[in-house]
Structure formats: structure tokens, C-alpha cells
Amino acid sequence: MTKRAFLPPTYAPMAWLAPSLVAIFVAAGCSGRSSNAGGGAAASSGGGSDKSDASTAGGDMPGTGSSGGSPSGTGDDATTSTDDASAPGSSGLDGGTNPSPPNDAADGAALPGWTLTWADEFNGSDGSAVDPTKWKHDVGGTGWGNNELEYYTDASQNAVVMGGNLVITATKTGASQYKCSYGTCTYTSARLLTQGLFSQQYGRFEARAQMPTGKGLWPAIWALGDNISTVSWPACGEIDFMETIGTDIMNNHGSLHMPSSYGPSGEYKLPNGASYADAFHVFVFEWEPGTIRFYVDDNLYETQTSKVPSGDTWEFEHPFFLLINVAVGGQWPGSPDATTVFPQTLKVDYVRVYQKNGTEP
Fold first, then answer.
1. Does the pTM exceed 0.85?
2. With contact defined as beta carbons under 8 Å apart, do 347 and 219 qualify?
3. How far is the C-alpha of 45 from the C-alpha of 82, rounded, in Å?
4. Domain 19-356 = CATH 2.160.10.10
């Protein structure tokens, strides 16, 4: 839905694309390349393993981010929000790093016509950290190119395995020990990425997740080109396949970003007033040369192709790595307000990546 800058040293995702432009892309059917096979069909809670729901992780203790320390000022530009409380409704052939098929994948990971190439089922013991052979942490409170308010830590308060899920928690507790771009930090959260550990070109990328909710919350599961260190963002390309904001929690946005003004985006709205914060749903993009398709719960809602407008560049023919994060604030969602309840959690049951069987990518 939004453009994301990804700049060194700790990267800076999400340089905002105006909602009015996105509305134009969606209303125009993504320049005539959007397929809406799913329509308003009832969405299930998705397939995969039926792990039990995880409670809010970690107990709100101070984080241990790499660039913390006593703040030098206040400068808080966020509206004061509700103190931390229990959060309602939140209870291709590979050209990159591609290890042997994972040994922790559930039986439900088998998918006819596809070979599993990488997965994390988050089946570690409750309270354990994420697998460091699969995930790294981005750390810092730079605003990440979008005037965001969170400080990303590598602490278990913000990212932990609990109840068979990855639980990423956005919270106010302990945030004041960190310095953010606006002064003393107001929120902490987590951002995980597989850069340098896993990337893949083409295939099926799938995640089963339950979103947080509330004004100012901005969860995403997405991918960036692994050539980012040499060509920078946005020339590396970006694929967002789970992205929403807490005040529009019935809509998921599937978007592409490339080095141009063209950033096609489609959305899938859950039927019957359902919310992505109420249950788990399966988010997928299937990627082959020249084409990327987006699904929610097996409903195809968007298809993008390499036939981009003249002067624009399709940047999706090289390996991409994965990211998971919960941002707080920023140009798209705005700041939390008095209605926003913290902590809020993004729960991820699994992330799986497949390669299509046979000689064709």
C-alpha cells in the first residue's frame, strides 16, 4: 500500500505513497492488470497447522536494543494513548540463499505441485527467541523514512515464540529508555528480516497471521530485493503481501514498489464485516517471470504483470528476502490516540516458501 524506503545503516522502510494515489490504482484495477477472482467470497481462517492462540508475549520489561540509552529530550509528536492493557481482538528458481528444505515444517506444509524450500513454524518453547539462523533484527528509532514512532528492539518483550506462534508486540512500557528521531521514544516494537540468511527468486510465499488493531498500528509481512545493498531502494523492488492499518483492519493491501511513480496496489476486504484482528488468515503471493498474484485465504484478488507504464521499470526478476514488522505511527496510519490500547500483537503461525515443481520456475 505504501512505498517504503530502505536506507543504511539500519535501513529506513516506508517512504509514504499518498493514499489518494493508491485509491486511483485500486479504483483503476491496477491499470487493468488486477484480477478479482476472490470477490467478496467468505474467507476462512486459513489452512495450515491449527496452533493454539498465543497470549501477549514477554511481559512488558525494558528492551535491550543495540542503540538504547538515556534520552536527551522529549519531543514526542504522538498523541497520548491508552496505557498498556490487554488488547482486544489481538489476544521460480532460486537465485539466492536457499538452504535444504526445513525439518521443522508441519505435515500441513505439503502442497501439491510445489516443493517447500524454507519455513519457520515457530514451534520453539514458549518464551524463546526467534531462530537466529532464520531471522535477524533491525534495531533503532530513526523514523524509518515515514516519521514512525516506534523503536525496534531485539528484546523478547517485542518478538518471542509463544503458543506455536511468533508474537510481535508493540508496547509503551520501557520505551522511554530509548532515543527516537523525535526525542524520547514512546513505543517499542520489532522488525525481523531474513536478509543474508534466505532469499529466493520466484515461487509461493505464504504466511498465516492475525493482525493487531487500533489507530496508529501498521503491521506488514513483505519482501525486498536482495540486491538492495548495491542498488538501494526502490531499485531493488518491494512486494507487500500482508499490510494494513489498525483503523482499516478489514482490508489487506497487496502492493508492488519499484523505482518510479508507479506503485500498483490492490486490496482484499473480508466479507460480512469480519476483521483481520479476530482470526488467523493466510496471505500469499505467487511469483513467476513477469507476473505476481496476491491471495487471501485462497481468494485471488490481484494480479500484476511486467507490462508497466512507459518509463517505469519492473524490478522483480531477482531473489527477494522476507521481513515482518509492526510499525507504530507514520504518515499512513497517523499517530495512536486515546482510543488505542497497548500492548498490541501481531501473531504469525508460520511462514513458508515454496518452489514450483518441474523445470519451469
1. no
2. no
3. 29
4. no
